[in-house]
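pasting for the record
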Amino acid sequence: TVLPDEREFQYAAKMNNLDTMEKLFKKNVNINAVDTMKRTAFHFAVAGGHVSVVDFLLHHKARLDMADQHGLTVIHLAAWIGNLDIMQKLVKAGADQKAKNEEGMNVLHFAAQSNSIKIIDYFLQDLHLNDLNKPDGKGKKPFLLASEKGHVDMIKNLIALQLFTDEKDEDGNTALHLAAKNGHSEVVEILLEQWGEVNDLNQNGETPFYLAVEGGNEKCAELLLEAGSDINISTQNSSSALQIAIQNGHLSLVTFLIDKNVDLVPKPEQKNSPLHLAVTSNNLPIVKSLLDGGHDINSLNHRQETPLHLAADLGNVELVEVLLKSGCNLKTMDK
């Protein structure tokens, strides 16, 4: 349990209240006491960017190596908030520069994720700690984390430091997959200048283009298509970019894909045609978009049903009307 004085001391560190801390220190408070999350006053001081409190704690030899319940030490927090002044003080005082949290993240990972360019430069150019450029517990190097977050300046900085990588994380995603998935079109643009294989597959058989479409990220999808992505490629569970755009209700992407001559005929391993999926999703605008794009209105799914059968089963009068007006064949019998 945390003693009242210790709790007050930690709160004072959090609130940048040096007077209270000095009073409590004179009363012999344990300056390294931890709260229920295993955080110390030092954690709070660094997270708040309170330089004078950090100086006070360093002067009184507070411990630098204490990890909270997630394995976070003060050096991780300094990287996360991007405070170079505090970081330099911690390093000078002997903080473990290679400390990792429970997810295998070190200072470079935190700095890359929070766009702290000065911290990256300090560790790589001043301290020459290039061996910190390792994958974290999920197989992501700093470059992948920066791409995932969409930090354009950080990406440019890491490329300048020759830390560009097209390596994959443990899910088989590259930096390009992660940027496309999260809709970071500026990062996608920068990565494409350096990129070799745009149709690289992750563990689920998804390309960056597929992930861009799935996330409804039109600009990313456009850039990736221009760069030579395969518009018709299927994932491991036989889903295509068009199918996922329909299922996620991304009308403008469905229209975009049709304009780019996406294949409207389902592959043999796909149980339903795009039009069946649009009907099942009850999405009238997408149904109209597919019909305008020339989709076969009488295509059969794996149960030999037409889109009209499905619309009738759903009891969607509006969809039935649209399909009838568009001239679907009433004579097709389902099995």
